[in-house]
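Lecture 7, part B: from sequences to assemblies.

Below are the input chains for today's worked example.
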Amino acid sequence: MSALETRRPGLSTLRAEWTKLRTVPGTPWLVAATIVLTVAVSIAAIAGTRCPVGAPCPADTTKLSLTGVDFGQAVVAVMAVLGISGEYSTGMIRATFAAMPRRAAVLAAKACVTTGPVLAAGVIAVAGSMLAGRLILPGHGFSAARGFPLVSLADPAVLRAAAGSVLYLALIALLSLGIATAVRDSAVAIGLVLGLLYLFPIVATLAANPHWQRHLEQIGPMTAGLEIEATTGLHSLPISPWAGLGVLAAWAAAALLIGGVLLRLRDA
Amino acid sequence: MTATIARHRPGQGREDAGRDGFGRVLRAEWIKFRTVRGWVIAVVIAVVLMDLIGLFAGGSVNTTCDNGGGRVLHGAACIPPQPLGPGGVPVTDSFTFVRQPLTGNGSVTVRMTSLTGRYGGGYGPASQGPAAGSKIGVQPWSKAGIIIKQSTRQGAAYAAMMVTGSHGVRMQYDFTHDIAGLAGPVSARSPRWLRLTRSGDTITGYDSADGRHWTEVGAVALAGLSATAQAGLFVTSPAYMSLSEVFGGTTGQVGPSLATGVFDHVRLSGARPGSTWAGVDVGNQDAFGPQSGQLEGFQRAGDRFTVTGSGDIAPQVPGGGGGGPNSTIEGHLIGAFAGLIVLVVIGAMFMSAEYRRGLIRTTLAATPRRGRVLAAKAIVIASVTFAAGLAAAVIAVAVGVRLAHDQGTYVFPVSWLTWLRVVAGTAALLAVATVLALALGTLLRRSAAAVAAGIVVIVVPFILGIAQVLPIGAAEWVLRVTPAAAFAIEQSVPAYSQVRASYTPPIYFPLAPWAGFGVLCGYAALALGLAFIVLRRRDA
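Predicted structure of the full complex, as structure tokens:
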């Protein structure tokens, strides 16, 4: 064991972080909450949507099936924030840095081990949501006969939306981890993360100027990132799906960078 | 903490202790709040965020327009004058009116045998038949009937009996009031007899299917009706709208429409002797005689009148067709959700921070009756957020509306009572939501979980409701059952069933203002109740 640690410090840091995350009683609950909340909200949105006979329904059935991601990301953010701010609130962080003085490595290890459960939860949550869409939507007027193909992963656009939604959740976790590292306090961090995510869609909806509205949707981490879910009307999106996810990735990278720099410069 | 204060001010301390102690707990909690610098700064940030976002979202590009004579106008000068009804609400008042002066008491009676219409495309003069592109069809709220109106001025008080395109016989008065009469459409086989009688300030409307058996539809008092009013026949037809629902909003085609009503058995008693039927287009005030060649006007053949008109007699609503005002005062309160996120953080931390630092044990040792601690915290945090929210809302609305007006945006005028409800209601919404966050903080004890829960139950449903991510049916459902229903308290303009418009969020909410606010209060009360029980049972 000690031989392993001296030879591969990176691996032992990773191992330590994984042990911490795994043994904190909140983690399984938060993973479960991510899945349950995402799927439940998706089902509610799907169940509440009907396409009456004769009416045109310009609906994106894939995006509709993934509505729960809007909520599930909040739990993911909590999980990621607690990964580091929990250590600050208990004072554990001093022990961590005493054991592993390379702080950047600690942050990198935290990023890796937080992303794992988020990806796992994301896969299950997205699969559950899409399954609900596949089962419920045809009975609500969104049938193949009316031009709404069954939500299916065989469709490359749908596959991109599904995989992209899982990646979206992982990037939200990294963004949250970066912000939490920078501000240290869990309540402030979670308020900042959710404020940052939800500010753009609301202000964009109500901006009087359509030009600004488009720009806001292009730079907002949630508005741009969630364009990955779009499978119809791709030409009228404010930003293309992968570019939108790239905007979120840039936000996450910036947050981690700022968090990492502050982590090195500050006292723990 | 309280003990320290009491030593500094011995007299007051003893006095407080003499009371049943709740005042002391309240004071202790207030001191805890105001001495944490971060929380005070956060409240200021919430106010600033609310105002900045409100002004940013409400602001638009400076309007310029042409006054018709080649001179370019800017800003407020571009806002066309809007006629106001007797209640002070902006109205549309435009119809073809075939009238005679009615002096003192009297009555007008007609039989109607037909109501037809055309819409869409261009429509040429009636003699040339429908122009290319126009379609035959009457609008649901096309109106034809009899009216007694104070004068031909737009916005003047009135009462009218009418047949409508698809809503049967109605009695309407003073723009906002609507009473249902006989159901079913009018035709030569099932004519509709209409009668209005004036007695002093009271006007009574009757309808009948055969001219012998009359039913009273309604009796209304028009305040300050002058001795001589105008009485006669009218026809009008609102813009046609083909609304199709898209996600979160409606798009549709809007265009002018035209309706034609056929009247006979016209009886007017109480008219000034010697006066004859004269036509006027209320709206552009053109007078015309019978057989006028205009599209809108009337033809008379003996006792039979054929009247054609376009326009509407109705309150204006944002979201309606016809280019009415679309900006409302609550549009400047959109920053409230950003302030809400900050205040939810404070509300949750006000309790959860005590658990984190272990201060809760000192607090509960000093005040063993734990319910009082929670009550004091709720009162302190609610008062602070209400005051801050009120200040922010007053600034956002007052400054925002003034700026919008100066830039040439017509903001829908509201009564001062509505203004007060919107502004104070927003502050109350923030206060109750913060108390909900406090209760969540007590239940969950963990700051992050409490903050996330607070935001997820209030802010996310609000986004789903208004940000066009859900279809309208689902969005309205979200705005009924979640705490975000409370944003209904900000709706300043009511929806009228007798006016066709797209009544969708964020201007129109599915619940009435106070009912929506009640939903949030219910959640807060439930959470606070659970927090009381849990706080008493749990070890600190």
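Note for the exam: Residues 26 and 376 of chain B are 5 Å apart (CA to CA). Keep this in mind when comparing with the next example.
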